[in-house]
Amino acid sequence: MDDSCDGYNLTLSLPNDLDDEDNNNNKNVLTGRRIINVEYFLNSLQSIKHELFDCSIQNLVFKSEIQKGFFSEFHFECNLCRKKEVIFSEPPDIITSLSINAAIVTATVNTGQGFTNLEQFSSILDMPCMSNKTYQKFHQVLSKQTENTAWESIELAGKEEARLAVENGDINIDGIPMITVVADGAWSKRSYKRNYNASSGVACIVGYRTKKVLFIEVRNKYCSICRKACANNRDPPVHLCYKNWNGTSTAMEADIIVEGFRQSISMHNIIYHKLIGDGDSSVLKKIMLAKPYGNNLDVKKIECANHILRNYLNRLVDIATKLKALSLICCLNICQLPHVSLNEASVNT
User: Domain check: are 124 and 212 in the same one?
Assistant: First the structure.
């Protein structure tokens, strides 16, 4: 199924590719709750009419339910003419919006949750949950579509930045637009200025004029499947591995930003000639060593005003903390002086 959202294709429905655990979940007794498309479900019930004996919904006897994730097929049989009817929880060939399974996985991911959270949520609601295998299938499709949509947005942002640069006359002798960008990184855990050992890091480059992302990448040091295989002294099986970094966590940011500068011309036909960033000099140093635009152009660094003020405040806090510590030490020394004099006097006598 091809769904459309804001001009981007979202192929998120896998009606014929569900896990066997979901496809074979046939129940003869109805229990718990279900999610249904109310309008479609009621119209399906009202449209049931058998001409032979003028049978209606009142003559239907429930026989079984087939669950496919959060999608259900309800099978009925007429107690008069024995005709069988199947009512779905939503249109099986839905094309105007996300299917229930795709919507559930999308909502779970967008709220920062995972399959375990979805399973607990469904259990509390007394609602059957899809299997982990089915969830992962939808998750992979969703991830790919999200990535494609993100890159389409990045391409559009690059074109907009290039247009604005040309309009302002910011081009080099070869006619390539030259722009100012903002770059920064983040990690999966806080370091508190001591523990720089995060397993994942992300960095992005944003256009100064449009405030839109021009480049983004992630570095991962950990893969659970590879880790488990290594612990058992075995080669890891064929799998989708997200591990792409063996260096230190602190080096992730600089590596991603340098990669973004190297790809600026191939991706957008743009030169990032000015970089607005924090006080981390390692990023600029690695860019200067990489020379993404050759020897004739050096990237200029502009210190971010927000980071300057924050670093200034941090220094003031450090100074105040040290002054308080010194004041406390001086106070303790002064308090000890009378006792020292008294002890010395008693020794002399």
Answer: no
